[in-house]
Target: Arsenic resistance protein
Amino acid sequence: MPMIERLQSLFVALAALIGLGAGLLLPIGPTAEHVVLPALLVMLTAVFVQMDAAHVGEARSAKSLVVTSLLLNFVFTPALAWALGAGLLGGEPDLRIGLLLLLVTPCTDWYLVFTAMARGHTGIAAALLPVNLVLQLALLPVYVLLLGGRAAMVDAGTLAESVLLVLVVPLAAALLLRWASARFKGVAWRERFVTGPAGRLVLPLLYLAVLAMFAWQARTVLDHAADLLALLPPLAVFFVLLPLLSVGLSRLLRLPADQSVTLTMVTTARNSPIALAIAVAAFPDRPLIAVALVAGPLLELPVLALLAQWVRVRSPRAEPSARG
Model:
């Protein structure tokens, strides 16, 4: 795993601190506001352009894993997100929506890295990526409107437009770019000059978006610093409960070791970049929602790194299937 990915939590925190300081000391807030959403849209296009739909067929060989992961990600986790928000953030509607947006969006990128680190089945993990993306695209507005309740305070049309902008447009652009580059230049050229560079763009664009957002909302962060600490208990509950539940279900279903790793990673990792982009687009007048979402990766990435060591497949016999 490259050093820049190992230190991602640190770099996200540094970007936030630099943006916060710049926003408090310099009059750059109005300019930074116009950087956040474009940076996130380009970043998501770079993420999606790396997806290969050909992997979807591999999911057929692991029906128990696929069904369990879908139930955990799209039934259990939304219910848990609602319960944690109602129970621990009842008086903070913006933090409740931020928590909900984070927890109901399964990861579509870096969980693959941690799955590989732990010698999980990367083929099945890759196959689940487009499935998770399409389902969260369809269900996210439903979750926000039904589970967000009065805290959401956004009409269905606005939310649908935001999802269309943040997910469908980058996805369509990425698919077109993949097709055109392979059609006119060949697959090898696409891998070298499109998907490879796209992978290297994702993290710098994420850091730029975080820096710009904190510069834009520096005063909001300063005024609500204590409130943001309220997110730690519900996030801690989620990042402890989901791995334990995934490992327990893996044993109950007698999944192979590499599939157990995949289930743990795909149900624990969250899609904070997409959640952040949705928050910026759908709730532009409620910046605390977007600010709250930055807290997710600060806790999530160290948790995933620890999980990769805890659930790592240690038997050499399991390694061939881990290559997917």
Remarks:
- The chain has one domain: 3-314.
